[in-house]
Fold this protein.
Amino acid sequence: MEQHRSGIAGVEAMTLFSDHSFPRHSHDQFAIGIMTNGGQRSWSVLGYVESEAGDVIMANPSEMHDGMPAGRESRGWRIMYIEPAIVARGLESEEIRGELVARPVVRDPQLARDVIRLFRHVERPSPDSLAAEETLLSCLMRVHQWHRVGGASAMQPSPSVIRAVQRLDAAPELPTSLAELAAESGVSRFQLLRGFAREVGTTPHAYLVQRRLQLVRRHLVAGRSLADAALLAGFADQSHMTRAFVRHFGITPARYRAAISFKTQ
């Protein structure tokens, strides 16, 4: 993994080439990128999809997805994570209405060219702000016009699952149990487990781990040590945190911290 220096606030960029299989997880940002090598198979809100070199890949904020090589060879991709507020500002006009919910994989040469162009702007220490803004808006407009998921395709979580997710989001560093979550949600443990897996796409424990890992990343960006980040995020110790981090992101937290430190120099 290569973490790129980003010249655009609110946009994170990285290049990956790996045979690692990523478990189901989500991001707080809108992700858009392009496959550069090989192929990938991933679970999404539309079921399993496959992508290959030249395809544009996307993930919506909080949308569960995973990723694994489609064949025996490693695959590569370049990806950008854009803060939702930037996406919302880009779409606030009379002509573009509604939330952007993008398809996970599309083959669109024009969008691919725009994504590559945007990536180049992001990599520059002092990008041309007008050109970068126009390219970003061009990407968002094309996705919104041609590659949206219809509202009926998205499952609306039940109140019990919403309450469980809110509890895990509010304090992922605090210990909890399935019995506690079920009691707070007003359903049985079995009902919560079944509903959570169906509606969120993973189990409550797996969701809690990935929320804790997002906390770890924020603590590392803030300059915390690995041990402190593990403790503050709710992991039993640094070794537990490291194993989970490698499983989810394909690199060690030490390598991630080094990349972040280089990025901010």
Q: What stands out?
A: The first strand starts at residue 2 and ends at 4. The chain has a mean pLDDT of 89.
